[in-house]
Amino acid sequence: QFMADAPAADLAFSGIFEGQPGERLLGTFSLSNRLAGRLDQDRLPLANLTGAVLGDATHADFSSLAIDLGAAGQFDGDGQWRDGRLTVKLESPRLNLAGLHSDLNATRMRTVLQLAGDAAHQTLSGEVTETWGQGRFVLSHADAALRLESANFSGQAGRLSAQGELQLDANRTFTAEFDAAQINPARFGKFPRGRLNARGEASGALAPELRLQTRFTLPPGELEGRPVTGQGRLRYENRHLADADIDLNLAGNLAKVKGAFGHAGDRLNWDIDAPALARLRLGLAGRLTSTGSVSGDLAALQVEALVAASGLRLPGDIAADTLNLELDLQAAANGAFNGQLDARGV
């Protein structure tokens, strides 16, 4: 396991190769994974990869390529290496998304992937087709940048288009934009029924510190038969949240956030009235209301808040039958603190 948060795998590589006259190489290879499983099991879905190669440093053919994803299905294909340029085509007649993650619905998705490129420029394109929709994407890497050239999906599950770019430099600057219409999350897995519309854009950088500017709108839609609408914008830079203005109605759960935070004189206000958190299907349940504000900078933070909840259930097995909190806190060396907490069934 190369990274602490990466899925677990137990990989073993084997190959049999022999030289041919004219320095041509003939052989077969295999990469197996003894711990193959779904992503929600913290496993890598790859069970086995096999293939054969015949050629030399300038001209080679890859045949009988097979990628076994266990319950998710199998890709088969071939490839070529010509004077420094690689092309590979893989196809699966019935990719099963439930085999990748248990929260996703079972599918029989015809999938075609094509990889082409040389040392300077690589492109991965894909096409997917199901009875309820079809889509395609193009992803490229060149000039120290990773680009989602286009991603489009349309069908009974809704319509989605997106594009974006990530610079692979020290700052990791990025841009992204998306437009979604009539999306029904339940079509894809264990998610709420809906007819969601959203469009937005974001830009910023991931290093050396996060910088983000984003704007989005949720044109009228519905979730579990309840209205969904909203809009929002914010700007975050140098540990300062500025120009935040978010107003959401998510299946009757209302949330408003407005203001700024991080500098002296800033104030960020919120107002939440969420009578039915379970409608969101995010591991939430119960009723929650809260109003308050946070002001000042991090060295002299001041928080005023009122929170009331009943039948509250949060991710991580956090629960409270009833909860009432009043808080007036100044986070400084000699700051004042006043508060009252009444919680039952925690």
Task: Describe what this molecule looks like in 3D.
The chain has 346 residues and is mainly beta. It has a domain of 99 residues. The protein contains no helices and 22 strands. It has a 22-stranded antiparallel sheet, with no helix packed on it. Strand 21 and strand 22 form a beta hairpin. It is elongated. The model has no long low-confidence stretch (mean pLDDT 93).
Question: What's the layout of helices and strands?
Answer:
Elements: E1 11-20, E2 24-33, E3 48-55, E4 59-68, E5 74-82, E6 85-95, E7 109-117, E8 121-130, E9 133-142, E10 145-155, E11 158-167, E12 173-183, E13 194-205, E14 211-223, E15 226-237, E16 240-250, E17 253-261, E18 267-274, E19 285-295, E20 301-314, E21 318-331, E22 337-344
Antiparallel strand pairs: 1-2, 2-3, 3-4, 4-5, 5-6, 6-7, 7-8, 8-9, 9-10, 10-11, 11-12, 12-13, 13-14, 14-15, 15-16, 16-17, 17-18, 18-19, 19-20, 20-21, 21-22
Summarize the main sheet. Answer: 22 strands, antiparallel
Number of DSSP strand runs: 22
Parts with pLDDT < 50 across at least 5 consecutive residues: none
Mean pLDDT: 93
Which structural class best describes the helix and strand composition?
mainly beta
Principal-axes geometry comes out as elongated
